[in-house]
């Protein structure tokens, strides 16, 4: 891969645009940065999309720019403005007519959405596909390759975007960019690992371990026996007392 440019270290004067050429039903203008492919590294973004519900024909992911990182938001704003201004400045050369700036601005679909009060900005990027398969590289925080289906809710990611060109269509034109790599930070979950089989082997137990267990059992038995003996003693004493009462009553009756 060519050089990667961090979002907060972009010289927008180095963005270059080729004259649009017809490709099937669209016109396409290629973008480069200082004569190199324009690969842009983002800050960490929250993943808002449900990965299990991606559009299989044209998959894309919506992200939240976290902690009000307006530097990243501003970077994409400046890319949008650069595209609009370049298209306006070159409209006669490219399309053989001078198109008003207002028309060009209205036709362009911006990468960024207008800011909302007390809400972090969001932005959406598409995933490249080939033969109905997503082909961008996805890694976890340990730099292990993972499948896109392993991305969980409440994850975040750092992206490398390829800002490739401008697509001019009949009703609108857009910045053609896609995610070429993702480093996903999956939140760790506390999980108990409980084996199904018994892992305690008799060889692990020493004689002293067995003696301790036996001693505990003996002590418990002795306590129970003591309680039973004391209980029986108490019952015998009560019986003895009652017997004496009965005997005394017999003596009193005989004296009458």
Q: How does this model look, in words?
A:
The chain contains four helices and 15 strands. It has 256 residues and is an alpha+beta fold. The protein has two domains: 4-185, OB fold (Dihydrolipoamide Acetyltransferase, E2P), CATH 2.40.50; 215-254. The strands form two sheets. Strands 1, 2, 3, 4, 5, 6, 7, 8, 9, 10, 13, 14 and 15 form a 13-stranded mixed sheet that branches. Strands 11-12 form a two-stranded antiparallel sheet. The chain starts with a strand and ends with a helix.
Topology at a glance:
Elements: E1 4-6, E2 15-17, E3 21-23, E4 26-33, E5 36-37, E6 39-41, E7 45-47, E8 60-65, H1 70-89, H2 91-95, H3 101-107, E9 108-109, E10 122-126, E11 129-130, E12 133-134, E13 137-139, E14 156-168, E15 173-185, H4 207-254
């Amino acid at each position: 891969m060519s050089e990667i440019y961090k979002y907060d270290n972009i010289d927008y004067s180095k963005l270059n645009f080729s004259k649009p050429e017809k490709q099937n039903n669209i016109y396409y203008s290629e973008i480069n940065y200082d004569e190199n492919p324009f690969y842009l590294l983002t800050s960490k973004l929250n993943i808002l999309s449900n990965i299990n519900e991606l559009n299989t024909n044209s998959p894309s992911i919506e992200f939240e720019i976290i902690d009000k990182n307006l530097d990243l938001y501003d970077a994409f704003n400046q890319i949008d403005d650069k595209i609009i201004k370049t298209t306006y400045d070159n409209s006669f050369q490219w399309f053989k007519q001078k198109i008003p700036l207002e028309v060009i601005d209205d036709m362009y679909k911006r990468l960024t959405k207008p800011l909302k009060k007390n809400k972090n900005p969001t932005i959406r990027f598409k995933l490249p596909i080939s033969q109905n398969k997503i082909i961008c590289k996805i890694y976890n925080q340990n730099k292990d390759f993972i499948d896109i289906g392993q991305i969980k809710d409440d994850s975040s990611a750092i992206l490398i975007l390829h800002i490739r060109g401008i697509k001019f269509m009949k009703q609108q034109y857009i910045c053609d960019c896609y995610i070429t790599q993702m480093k996903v930070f999956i939140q760790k979950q506390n999980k108990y690992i409980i084996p199904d089989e018994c892992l305690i082997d008799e060889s692990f137990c020493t004689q002293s371990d067995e003696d301790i267990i036996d001693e505990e059992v003996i002590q418990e038995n002795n306590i129970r026996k003591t309680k039973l003996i004391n209980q029986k003693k108490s019952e015998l004493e009560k019986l003895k007392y009652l017997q004496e009462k009965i005997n005394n009553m017999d003596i009193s009756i005989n004296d009458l």
